[in-house]
């Protein structure tokens, strides 16, 4: 555990120094704060524009940060050969992959916290108070978003464990995008066993997205949220386990 | 100081020389992009093409196109551009986000105001089938039937449906009943639109309904003036020379104020016209108004 937490801490500190990730975070916060102005473009129901745009900005930039940091973690270490001193010590490759993912997760959740504060701030300004924290499922939507980022981060680590940074980023982005399509595709592919399996293998990110509920102020049942978070945790565990398995057998010479 | 600036002189000179050419080119590029033309939406995808997206992405795209729709409606040169994209835009937004009741309502009212009652009906009926349960959807269909088609029977059915929907204004049932028992009159139209105006929630809807309210007042005034002129003809055996003459013999208490800011006048045949907006709904048969025969000049692309 000490090795994993040490690697996680290093990963978190490294990510804070990454200019791309910091810039993405700054842009996302600016976009979230700008939703109040954008919402002036509509008449009536400004709330729906603010809630949707703010959460979409957090989702988009959070996903991009997960992809670009996650894809570069393992693959980048292999390419730069900075991996060797680490795994030559008493650190297993599984511990290394787990530590890298834990650090990525802390980074993503920290970024999400900043974006969540900006979202709460802008909604508080628009609504004139914090009552929306009780009357809308904002907390559930943010938890769902955190779960989405955790899944995307795990997928990025998975691809990063056997390919280079560029390809890992491309593959992860493709999977993240497909994750928003696949609910209906599973229905379309009902009669085709192979394609149905593909539908189940892809992460169902739509199931972790509570934007519609937030916009329409629908209550999110605790059980539903619980199942979604459990799904994300299990999916990330499987992706990470596969990454560790592949990386453990990878010839790094 | 000058020595320190010397390395920057050549690039600054280049900026000064290139800037005018850049300005001219920018104007050309913007003109090519149609930036000097009224706001328009070049392409509106169909809702079916985006159905594979998750519900949340559909919502975001719907909100994007909703903002486009608002800009499209709000374009002050809209009549110059035409309104052909309004129905596809509202149709797309409501396909992607069927719970967006405001889009159904605003789309229905705007299309009605633009004298496209069939498209307005399609959006509003879609709202009744797939949207939230808003009493205003059947209410505005009733208006279209009443105002544009003169179909009181159908209007009464829709008004009844509106009256039965939870949250409906208490006056709606009265209107439904009124339409059912009466053959209809311009006074009813004024009251009907006045009722809708009272329920408007935003400036855009209110502006659209105010326009319709003025049209209703115009029809009411035409009806009253026509009746007075007909009585004058029957009594004098000739058409009156002016509305003042009709008023002078006591057939009119006063010449009403023209709602669009113009005035009422008589032609040589003794027919009443408006100097500002000469637009009439002529009854095709007693108790029933015909569909408007006029082509709204401001809705054609070539007209100003």
Question: Can you describe this structure?
Answer:
The complex is a heterodimer of chains A (253) and B (304). Chain A has helices at 2-16, 19-38, 46-80, 83-87, 93-127, 132-135, 138-160, 165-178, 182-188, 193-201, 211-215, 222-249. Chain A is mainly alpha-helical and 253 residues long. The two termini of chain A are 27 Å apart. Chain B is mainly alpha-helical. Helix content of chain B is 61%, strand content 4%. Chain B contains 12 helices and 4 strands, in the order ααααααααααααββββ. Chain B has helices spanning 2-33, 55-74, 78-81, 86-96, 101-113, 117-130, 136-149, 152-164, 171-181, 186-199, 203-236, 243-248; strands spanning 264-266, 272-274, 283-285, 288-289. In chain B, α5 runs parallel beside α7 (136-149) and α5 (101-113) packs parallel to α11. Classes of the chains: A mainly alpha (253), B mainly alpha (304). Chain A binds chain B through residues 38, 41-45, 48-49, 52-53, 56, 180-181, 183-185, 188, 205-206, 209, 211-212, 215-216, and chain B through 51-57, 59-60, 63, 66-67, 70-71, 99-100, 102, 106, 201-205.
Task: Describe this structure in a few short sentences.
Chain A has helices at 2-16, 19-38, 46-80, 83-87, 93-127, 132-135, 138-160, 165-178, 182-188, 193-201, 211-215, 222-249. By secondary structure, chain A is mostly helical. Chain B is 61% helix and 4% strand.
Which geometry of chain B do the CA atoms define? flat
Following the backbone from N to C, one meets helices and strands of chain A in this order, namely HHHHHHHHHHHH
Give the beta-strand count of chain A: 0
Our estimate of the beta-strand percent of chain B is: under 5%
Could you describe the largest sheet of chain A, including whether it forms a barrel? none
Unreliable residue runs of chain A: none
Helix/strand-derived category of chain A reads: mainly alpha
Q: Please tally the β strands of chain B and state the result.
A: 4
Q: What is the rounded Rg of chain B?
A: 26 Å
- Considering DSSP H and I runs of 4 or more, what fraction of the residues of chain B is helical? 55-70%
Please state how the strands of the largest beta sheet of chain B are arranged side by side: 1-2
